[in-house]
């Protein structure tokens, strides 16, 4: 509720002309969630620059019989919030428990910087790490995965698509992508999970549209049009339905008890489409990528939570990848909600189920 309250107060302050709501929310979240602590026994933690991109590295200090695995991690926060600091606890845990070198990336944030700045920073940091992994960190560059939560999961999936399509010369591709309740498309905000969990903290349905708009162009006045689907032309709706239809969800997520009343469809608005069409491209909406591109993506771990507007993004992406022959490991959290890993080991804010979520991620990393 802290995050929800901060967003509400921030919106009031913005309307009064005192500050941008995102800036206020960042300050509050940092005050509550970021703690400066020394490195624990068994880890070496450093703040570095990979080119122009700030990163924090987590290196296990225990002797290793060979080259280690690596994970480049992108934090969540709707492309507008979050930092190396907010993901510090989870990166420490992953690095120590899986004996993996973790690189947490401090990519630029919206609204000060917009797409593709965030993706560019993630690519630059990942490629830098791949180029120095063995010499400077004792990491096998062929065992380096990318991953992230929420918007960070979006960036990880988008980066894999960018790398398999564009390549980076002699550098190996990521060996896996780890997607923790990722945001994977902005074509349909009326999937069952959006409607069932529209008012479930900590991410409400309208906020997802708001975050996508901050990422793209900053025009929050278009939120209503996005939620109604007015930004998608009729021909594209037909095209996307083969991937976004609720019929593609696992049977247990299509039970009658889960049914909700669908909103009235909105007519297409050409001006809104013009302003937001880049958001329907694969590097913003990886779930909408063509088969040939997705088929070449690496093995994937997807974590979904029951009480999350983004649940069905992960479920539908899982089906697409499986249909294309990509190896997918899926972990669903029946009592989980969006942002649960941010409540891991944070004192009185800790949720007991967050440890199980973190252990599922660690178990997958150990298989790489």
| Shape annotation | globular
How far is the first residue's CA from the last residue's CA?
36 Å
Extended strand count: 8
Radius of gyration over alpha carbons? 20 Å
What structural category characterises the helix and strand content? Answer: alpha/beta
Percent range for β-strand residues: 15-25%
> How confident overall, as mean pLDDT?
90
Overview of the structural elements:
With about 375 residues, this protein is α/β, with parallel strands linked by helices. The chain is about 40% helix and about 15% strand. It is built from 13 helices and 8 strands. It has helices at about 1-15, 20-35, 90-100, 115-135, 150-165, 190-195, 205-215, 225-230, 235-245, 270-275, 290-295, 310-325, 355-365, and strands spanning about 45-50, 55-60, 70-75, 100-105, 140-150, 175-180, 300-305, 330-335. It has an 8-stranded mixed β-sheet with strand order 1-2-4-3-5-6-7-8, with helices on both faces. The protein is globular.
């Amino acid at each position: 509720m802290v995050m929800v309250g901060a967003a509400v107060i921030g919106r009031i302050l913005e309307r009064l002309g005192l500050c941008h709501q995102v800036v206020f929310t960042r300050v509050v979240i940092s005050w509550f969630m970021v703690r400066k602590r020394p490195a624990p026994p068994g880890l070496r933690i450093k703040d570095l620059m990979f080119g122009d991109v700030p990163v924090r590295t987590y290196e296990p200090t225990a002797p290793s019989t060979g080259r280690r695995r690596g994970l480049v991690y992108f934090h969540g926060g709707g492309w507008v919030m979050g930092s190396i600091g907010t993901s510090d606890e989870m990166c420490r845990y992953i690095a120590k428990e899986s004996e993996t070198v973790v690189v947490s990336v401090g990519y630029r944030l919206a609204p000060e910087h917009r797409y593709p700045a965030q993706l560019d920073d993630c690519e630059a940091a990942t490629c830098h790490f791949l180029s120095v992994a063995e010499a400077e960190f004792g990491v096998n560059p062929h065992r380096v995965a990318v991953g992230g939560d929420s918007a960070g999961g979006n960036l990880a999936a988008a980066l894999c698509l960018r790398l398999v399509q564009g390549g980076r010369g002699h550098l190996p591709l990521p060996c896996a992508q780890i997607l923790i309740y990722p945001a994977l498309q902005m074509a349909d905000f009326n999937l069952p999970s959006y409607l069932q969990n529209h008012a479930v903290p900590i991410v409400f349905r309208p906020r997802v549209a708001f975050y996508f708009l901050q990422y793209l162009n900053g025009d929050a006045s278009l939120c209503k049009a996005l939620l109604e689907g007015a930004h998608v032309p009729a021909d594209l709706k037909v095209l996307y339905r083969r991937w976004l239809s609720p019929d593609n969800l696992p049977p247990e997520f299509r039970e009658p008890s889960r049914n909700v009343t669908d909103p009235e469809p909105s007519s297409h608005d050409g001006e809104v489409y013009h302003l937001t069409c880049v958001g329907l491209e694969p590097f913003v909406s990886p779930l909408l990528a063509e088969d040939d591109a997705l088929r070449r993506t690496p093995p994937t771990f997807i974590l979904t939570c029951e009480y999350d507007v983004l649940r069905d993004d992960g479920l539908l992406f899982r089906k697409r990848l499986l249909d294309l022959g990509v190896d997918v490991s899926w972990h669903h959290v029946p009592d989980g909600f969006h942002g649960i890993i941010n409540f891991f080991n944070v004192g009185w804010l800790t949720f007991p189920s967050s440890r199980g979520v973190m252990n599922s991620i660690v178990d997958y990393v150990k298989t790489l």
